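User: Can you model how adenosine-5'-triphosphate sits in this protein?
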Amino acid sequence: PAGKEAEKAGRSRVSYEDIGGLGPVVQKIREMIELPLRHPQIFEKLGIQAPKGVLLHGSPGTGKTLVARAVANETDAYFISISGPEIIGKFYGESEAKLRSVFEEAEKHAPSIIFIDEIEAIAPKREELGGEKQVERRVVAQLLTLMDGLKSRGKVIVIAATNLPNLLDPALRRPGRFDREIVLPVPDRYGRLQILEIHSRGMPLAADVDMGEVARITHGFVGADLEALCREAAMTCLRRVLPEVDLAQSTLPYETLMQLEISKDDFLSALREVEP
Ligand code: ATP
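Assistant: Here's the modeled complex, given as structure tokens:
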């Protein structure tokens, strides 16, 4: 319930509007996750099974967590987020019990989404696990049992994220488990422009800033990099306009505030600091 409250409290009220450059991905997510959560009867009527598990894969910072949170918010689904390393580490000795309680909580509050970040940490290929990896072995088995046992199909959906899909235990990808996959690509120039526009939405940009140009010269940057770039450009502007001595002043002249306008050069300087 604490997770739900934190979600409701604001901080992460992300919506589809906050996702840039992933049009087709969002479309697939809506079909695979939003539709069954909202209207499970459609799947029944069509005679097909609503998915239980969806695997998101893509490089770090491409928006996997963002997409999962957005779909939960947009559908008002109960959202529980856990991560593979956390299950093994923080809950050492109680990993399976923790997984069971997560699934119980999700069923109780359905419709809900369970998000498992870095799933490769709990579900590596079992045959590659040596004798010392007994914990992981049991955790994979527990996860599979819980997914097979999900009663309210369509009402509880498990979204798992990984940047190493080939490391996953193939048993996880069988029908009825994570049998749908969505790839989050590294954004192209147009995607980068959309992401830059999202992250500079609330920023005072000078007239000489051409985001299309910034998008052109940021080949290889993913969403998280572009967000960092916008933040760094703002900080560069701050340092330029407000020399350190002024920061100690207790009042800030209105004119100084008005001068805070992020310029093209601020973006260019920021580019020297932020790398993909
Ligand atoms: P990791 O594999 O490291 O967990 P991830 O794929 O889950 O990465 P997120 O945590 O979703 O990536 O992305 C980090 C931040 O980068 C997001 O909170 C968001 O601000 C920004 N971001 C990433 N992708 C996008 C995108 N497509 N549109 C807008 N912002 C994005």
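A couple of observations from the model: Confidence is low (pLDDT under 50) at residues 1-11. Strands lie at 53-57, 78-83, 112-117, 156-162, 178-183.
User: Helpful, thanks.
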